[in-house]
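The following block was generated as part of the benchmark described in Methods. Ligand: arginine.
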Amino acid sequence: MDTHSKKAVLAYSGGLDTSVTIRWLTEQGYEVHAVGVDVGQREDFDEIVDRGAKAGAASVRVIDAVDRYAAEFLTPAIKANGLYEGKYPMVSGLARPCIVEEVVRVAREVGAGVVAHGCTGKGNDQVRFEVSFGVLAPDLEVLAPIRDANIPREKAVALAAEWGIPIANVVTTYSVDENLWGRTAECGPLEDPWVAPPEDAFERTAPTATRPTEPAEMTVAFERGVPAALDGETLGLAEVIRRLDVLGGAFGFGRVDMIENRRVGIKSRELYEVPGALAIIAAHRALEDLTLERDLAHHKPLLEHRWADLVYDGQWFSPLRAAIDAYVDATQAPVSGEVRLRFEPGSCTVVGRRSGSSLYDLSLATYGSGDAFDQSDAEGYVRLYGLPLKVWSAKQGTGT
Ligand code: ARG
């Protein structure tokens, strides 16, 4: 092999599997450049860099991609109310293509012939990494040693000990992934779908005992479908998400316990903590209720559903995802205005909404005085509307 192909760039999370992957690749003769991507996970990045170096990486870098992740990935997710199977805001599915872009950038910079990831063969993340690498850098070889050299968890722990990689802080009961959009947990006691999630599986959402008892309200302002301010204070998207995540989390809102259908064919039990994401999607939907014309409001969710499947399935870099995003963008022009969210223990409820492009017309909706709705229009309209059924029922003899 030439030196070019002996350079590998690894998508490095700092966890057990990717740390072991660094050393495994160096054992195979690779010069390993580890790339940690900051997508808003609450991590000690100094510790990650230290661990990567101790594992034998030629370089370890942490790239701050938080604002880019918010702008390029979470913005479309909000506009598309992105929820896989109607429940999961796709914390991992949205972050992987962002991470892949950074890894490919570094691969070009150092002239690597190989990119690598630390996923197992059972999950969706391997699909997302490899499909995305295949689009952005089809010339690069992809290595997945945890999967392909078959390094199960116990073996990874043993290898880390043998190789002197400090992992005391990263070997946990649960397999966790985390970023600005939320936190995921699986494995351990969660593998039995009958077992209630132990409280130690949660980190971002408060247990019942410590939730505030008095409700709190927050007003979210949107501009063309994107959150732009909280309680009148203009903020960048990442900050809006962070603040709503902290507030919702304090109330214990945003826990999702679901059985999910993975791309690789297995059902799994997953636990999500996504207070900010769910609060924002609830608010965004409420504003769409007010501002989208009826047929559009009924049609958009059909494509939202498809969009979520594509993102979950690792098809971020697909022409269909891009085309649906163009459609979704075209729907968002009127989605500006404000939504009042009320947080109570375990819940977040929309309690008010207003917009300059509201289609809600009080003079049409009111049952009080000032009614502009001509009720005499209704009679003939309803008669024609019901005509097909009337004709049908006469033939059936279903009348009494
Ligand atoms: N099941 C979720 C998904 O596929 C979460 C995956 C979390 N990833 C992980 N490596 N722990 O999006």
